[in-house]
Amino acid sequence: PLEPGSLRVFYVQREEDPDVLAGYTRALIRGWITETTTDFLFRITTHHLAALFWESREEGRDSPRVSLMVALFGSASDAVLRRLLELDLDRPGELYDVDQEKKRRRLDTVAKLAGARASQRTESL
């Protein structure tokens, strides 16, 4: 059960509305939401997009998972991409610290679904 007044309520129910997820993507790419200026919103948006990318099984080119991954990994800042790759979905709103094996699997997913350009962007991350 969720505790009254807890921030977990913002993380537990995964966002599934494609328009909301696209809005999160746009805001991250354009720098409207950043870790330094809007930390809480940054944590919420990266959490829900990471949940879409790393928990969903959709692989169709026109699916929200793939189309938003292509957009983000093609245009977002390295800082945003690093956070998406390192976010621990089991500890919502906490530190970004997944083990290297999980991060490697996520990098493989990006390469498979988002293509060569996205894969090249992640090489230094």
Give the N-terminus to C-terminus distance in angstroms: 36 Å
User: DSSP strand (E) fraction?
Assistant: under 5%
> Which blocks of ≥5 consecutive residues have pLDDT under 50?
none
Note the overall shape. globular
Number of strands: 0
Whole-number total of structural domains: 1
Could you say which structural class the secondary elements and strand pairing correspond to?
Answer: mainly alpha
Number of helical elements: 7
Rounded to an integer in angstroms, the radius of gyration calculated over CA atoms is: 14 Å
Biggest β-sheet description = none
Task: Name the average pLDDT.
Answer: 89
State the share of residues found in helices, binned by percent: 55-70%
Q: Can you write the helix and strand succession as a string?
A: HHHHHHH
Name a few traits of the molecule.
single chain; about 120 residues; mainly alpha; 7 helices; globular
Describe this protein's structure:
The chain has helices spanning 9-12, 18-30, 39-55, 64-75, 78-86, 100-114, 116-122. The protein has one domain. It is mainly alpha-helical. α2 (18-30) packs parallel to α4 (64-75). The longest helix is centred in the middle third of the chain and has 17 residues, at 39-55. Helix content is 62%, strand content 0%.
